[in-house]
Amino acid sequence: MSKFFKKLVFLVIIVLISLVIVVTQSSLYNQVRVIDDKELVMTKATQSIPVKITLENSIWGGVEVEDEFHLQNIVSLFDQIIENGKAMKSLHAKKVQFKGNIVYSNGARRQFIISDTLTVDDRVYNSEQIKPIISALKSNLLELYYTPTKIGSLVEKSICVTIILDQKKVKINKKALSHDIKSSSVISDYQEIVNFLSNEKRALAFINIYLKDHKREGMISISVYSKFFIVQYLGDDKGNVVYMKGSLKEVLWGGIKS
């Protein structure tokens, strides 16, 4: 094969490759929708950005979420459930734990209900594959309520509070206990928690708070130490606990009867 013929073949191949590239780019461009309107561009860009979540729980009450970290975390779990779950027509949800709305920057809203399934607008998402994600979502939502103010308010509204102190049941004033809990602060520093636990091995007292009934979903347990206490909502599937700095000794040892 002559050198001239080789060069000719090479040039033909280059031309064909160039044509393929041009045709492909032209095809892709034709599929792109160009938006010239600036306001429309901004609407399209922001319509899927969540700006607030309103949440209601039958036991803990209502709360609003607006900080970006929690918004993105919660919406990400929603998206995972919708992507991996099996969608069905909406049915009456049993044992509703949460209901609320996701509000987007363009004013759009998505209603949701969370039980053992996730209902978004008129679609129910459920499958074995997404059950762990739904459980994680519920735990993340419950964490929004784990504040001194919320827990203290529930103590005051509870139907019954039992305290085991020195192996005896002690009656106390719920308002006084509520006040002390509200005056505490959440311990977020891991090393501080370790230091507290290493200095105190055993709890001084145990408090059970019954919010509606004596079932697990309606109970809060508190382990009391001298300078801190540990709160656990027994209805949390993940068994999360909250460490709080503050002393409940005065109201407990005072033995103020209700």
Notes on the structure:
- A seven-stranded antiparallel β-sheet has the order 2-1-4-5-6-7-3, covered by helices on one side.
- The longest helix is centred in the first third of the chain and has 29 residues, at 3-31.
- Helix 5 runs antiparallel to helix 6 (174-182).
- The model is unreliable at 31-46 (pLDDT under 50).
- A hairpin with a 3-residue loop joins strand 12 and strand 13 (228-233).
- It is built from eight helices and 14 strands.
- By secondary structure, it is α+β, with helices and mostly antiparallel strands.
Which helices and strands occur, and which strands form pairs?
Elements: H1 3-31, H2 38-46, E1 50-57, E2 61-65, H3 68-84, E3 86-89, E4 98-104, E5 109-114, E6 118-120, E7 123-126, H4 131-143, H5 148-157, E8 160-165, E9 168-169, H6 174-182, E10 185-186, H7 190-199, E11 205-210, E12 219-224, E13 228-233, E14 241-245, H8 249-254
Antiparallel strand pairs: 1-2, 1-4, 3-7, 4-5, 5-6, 6-7, 8-9, 8-11, 10-14, 11-12, 12-13, 13-14
* Secondary structure: helix percent: 25-40%
Q: Provide the residue-averaged pLDDT.
A: 81
Q: What is the N-to-C succession of helices and strands?
A: HHEEHEEEEEHHEEHEHEEEEH
First and last CA, distance: 107 Å
Strand arrangement in the largest pleated sheet? 2-1-4-5-6-7-3
Radius of gyration: 29 Å
Number of helices: 8
Largest sheet: 7 strands, antiparallel
